[in-house]
Amino acid sequence: MEFNVHTYSSLPSTQDYIKDLAAENFAEGEVIQCLVQTKGRGRHGNEWVSPMGNLYMSVLLRPNCKADDAGQISFVAAVALSAAISEYLDEKHTKTLKWPNDILIDGQKCAGILLESDLKDGKVESLALGIGVNIMAAPEGAVALKDVTWEIQVPIHPFRDRVLHHLNHFYTLWQKEGFAPIRKKWLEEAHGVGKTVTARLAKNTHEGIFEGIDEHGTLHLKAANGDILDISAGEVYFSN
Predict the structure, then answer these.
(1) Residues 6+ apart with CB under 8 A from 87
(2) pTM to 2 decimal places
(3) How far apart are CA 68 and CA 183, in angstroms?
(4) Cis bond leading into 51, ω under 30°?
(5) Do 145 and 133 contact (CB within 8 A), yes or no?
(6) pLDDT of the chain along its 240 residues, tens only?
(7) CB neighbours of residue 157 within 10 Å
């Protein structure tokens, strides 16, 4: 896949921009990056604080898959982003992938992924893949890549290109071989497998042991009574 990168000094939201391009029938591979976002957002509409010095970008994808499989792209992006971060991460720090779409370093959030899809007749017409990485600055409780790298400074644009390089690799792998190799790669770095997790859903909360994910990316939670609960959406919190 060829990427066509457009970089701006400031935008309200790279996601909104890429979704506009999708509506105008732009081809897969368009990338919108900005140095500052004034209305950046994460999952569930939460604000994504977007100061100068970090990576904010959105990629237009047209995966031609069923709507039920669209969520797999979040894991594709996670393993790609993880591979790019590994090129800079000092080996004394630990990187893990938190379900469904965060990258943690030493248990603190370093990067996040936002997936927004446009569906038609049960298939994905287009998909806006948003990626945010704390490189030079991080909000309270999170971590910046500059504080855990072996380099003096992490250059934003070369780092962006490494993310896109790995995204191309894993996206192509997913298209050719399906979700199985992506799932395997993600589970190798999964955060908290075998540990107690609390899953907060829209109407209730469940607690149990994080058993892993299935072939659709659904989280498997083992309740105290032995039942396996399937969690396809929600927020998860791990016990210390």
Answers:
(1) 162
(2) 0.92
(3) 16
(4) no
(5) yes
(6) 899 999 999 999 999 999 999 999 999 999 999 999 887 665 555 666 677 889 999 999 999 899 889 999 999 999 999 999 999 999 999 999 999 889 999 999 999 999 999 988 889 999 999 999 999 999 889 999 999 997 767 899 999 999 999 999 999 999 999 999 999 999 999 999 999 989 888 778 889 999 999 988 999 999 989 999 898 877 888 875
(7) 11
d(CA 92, CA 75): 25
Token pair of 33, please? 């990056």
Comparing C-alpha atoms, which of 132, 102, 112 is closest to residue 36? Answer: 132
Element (H, E) at 79: helix 72-86
SS3 of residue 125 by DSSP = strand
Q: Work out the angle between the directed axes of helices 72-86 and 156-177 (0-180°, nearest 10).
A: 140
Both tokens of residue 67? 């709507």
Q: Which residues sit opposite 114 in a β-bridge?
A: 130
Environment class of 114 (CB within 10 Å of its CB; exposed 0-12, middle 13-18, buried 19+): buried
Token reading at 139: 């909000």
Using CA of residue 113, residue 118, residue 119, residue 125, what is the dihedral sign? negative
Cα–Cα dist 25/105, whole Å: 37
Residues forming a β-bridge with 208: 197
Helix (H, G, I), strand (E, B) or coil at 156: helix
Q: Is 210 helix (H, G, I), strand (E, B) or coil?
A: strand
